[in-house]
Design a protein that fits this description.
single chain, four-stranded mixed sheet, binds glutathione, alpha+beta, globular
Length: 224
């Protein structure tokens, strides 16, 4: 049965490609599960949105009667019973998916929000001091250093490609896009290896098509 993935009706250019809805699309493509996309208004947030996602964020997912939020919970749910969650390494795959969110993304997210506040103070401000940004960057690099050592002698984080790799790579892509993986060759290769997967390519094409269609719908609305 097809699931419904909720994302925003429209977003400006800068977050496209990196909205957390993408990691769900990628997982759905990896496991070959049919899905439809439904939208919630980005602004103002609707009560129906908050009813599905108490923090009024995306992604959210509906599978029949079940509604889920939190990308980590959604990925774990979808991966269940598929090759992305091998029974023999369930505990380690879960551990690494949580490490991606709770150790790496907390550090990279703290740094990234400071970078965005400097770049677009009107939108994300107030800007932090350069010293505070550098402090956050060093905190992120501590985590990247550990991952770099780990990934030097493996292709995927636990055995074969798993849902932990979807999450870890989706977190690292943001850092790579900012040019911060330049001196991490193992992590650069890891991200490139994952992004070369056909499922990643299909998910990204659909993700970007969604925003193009959203632009067209918005242009039509503005012209009437
Ligand atoms: N912990 C949440 C974070 C979700 C999240 O930050 N979503 C962003 C889009 S990538 C969002 O909706 N931001 C708008 C907002 O917070 O109002 C998850 O992993 O699902």
């Amino acid at each position: 049965m097809s699931v419904i993935l909720y994302t925003y009706d429209w977003l400006p250019e800068f977050p496209r490609g990196f909205v957390r809805e993408f990691r769900v699309r990628w997982t759905l493509e990896e496991i070959g599960r049919a899905y439809e996309v439904a939208t919630v208004p980005a602004s103002p947030k609707a009560p129906e949105h908050r009813a599905m996602q108490p923090f009024a964020q995306v992604p959210a997912l509906k599978d029949g009667e079940l509604t889920l939020f939190e990308s980590g919970a959604i990925l774990l749910y979808l991966a269940e019973g598929t090759p992305l969650m091998p029974e023999a390494s369930r505990a380690e795959v879960t551990q690494w998916l949580i490490a991606a969110l709770n150790t790496v993304e907390t550090a990279s997210g703290a740094w990234m929000s400071m970078v965005l506040a400097q770049r677009m103070p009107a939108f994300f401000g107030p800007a932090s001091t350069p010293e505070a940004v550098e402090h956050a960057r060093r905190g992120m690099r501590d985590k990247l250093d550990a991952l770099e050592t780990l990934m030097a002698d493996r292709d995927w984080i636990v055995g074969d490609f798993s849902v932990a790799d979807v999450m870890m790579v989706d977190v690292l892509r943001v850092v790579e896009n900012e040019g911060e993986l330049g001196d991490y060759p193992s992590l650069t290769d890891y991200v490139a290896r994952a992004m070369a997967r056909p499922a990643f390519g299909r998910a990204m094409a659909d993700h970007m098509d969604h925003w193009r269609a959203a632009d067209a719908a918005r242009a039509t609305k503005l012209s009437v």
